[in-house]
Design a protein that fits this description.
This protein is of the alpha+beta class. Helices cover about 35% and strands about 25% of the residues.
């Protein structure tokens, strides 16, 4: 992470990154959350850099404290220190069982499970729910959820957008490269060097752990 951040001309000490649970289509996996004070262009470029090196299909950038946005936001807060990956997955499943469409995705920062009613390019929510129904489902899920007891602590709107690349069709990461100055740009060259280091470390770890290469 520090190498990718520094390649973007950003002081890595000004950003905070933590590994947290993250949900997508009713599954919880490890996720990286990076927070910092960046303008939209710098944030999108950093997101593209992360997606490019880590070979992600989509990276989400958001400004949760900007209520002028058009993306519905619901934050579910858990008691301090209680929001583990297991608890997050349980609530994820409970929310979707309460109202179909709430199992699309979530992120975690500290003790808060963050749900964004993200929209596609036409402005239609991926969840199939309007913001009021989105909020209602999460509120009802929080009320009926057992221990640890959550509560809806914040709601409203945020700015959020996905940046991505279809690696099956664009095998060189062209979707990201367009935001990184092109395939021959200086930033892409730096990221390619970081990618080679990352691939080496990943393969080395896979061998030491006995992971299958296609996992």
């Amino acid at each position: 992470m520090p190498k990718i951040i520094t390649a973007n001309g950003i002081d890595a000490a000004t950003l905070r990154t933590e590994g947290t649970p993250g949900g997508y289509l009713l599954k919880t996996n490890a996720s990286l959350q990076t927070e910092g004070d960046l303008d939209d262009a710098a944030a999108d470029r950093l997101a593209s850099s992360l997606g490019y090196v880590l070979r992600q299909y989509r990276v989400l950038t958001s400004r949760l404290d900007d209520r002028t946005g058009k993306t519905g936001l619901v934050i579910v807060r858990f008691p301090q220190g209680s929001l583990s990956a297991t608890v997050a997955q349980r609530f994820f499943e409970a929310a979707d069982a309460t109202k179909n469409g709430l199992g699309g995705g979530y992120s975690v920062v500290g003790d808060e499970q963050i749900f964004l009613n993200a929209t596609n390019s036409e402005g239609k929510p991926y969840s199939g729910l309007d913001d009021a129904s989105f909020l209602d489902g999460l509120r009802r899920a929080a009320v009926s959820f057992g221990s640890p007891k959550p509560r809806v602590s914040s709601l409203g709107n945020a700015i959020a957008r996905f940046i991505g690349n279809d690696w099956q069709r664009s095998t060189r990461g062209e979707g990201y490269q367009t935001l990184l100055g092109g395939s021959d740009g200086e930033l892409v060259r730096k990221l390619d060097e970081i990618s080679r280091c990352y691939a080496f470390l990943l393969a080395k770890t896979a061998d030491s752990k006995g992971w299958a290469r296609d996992e």
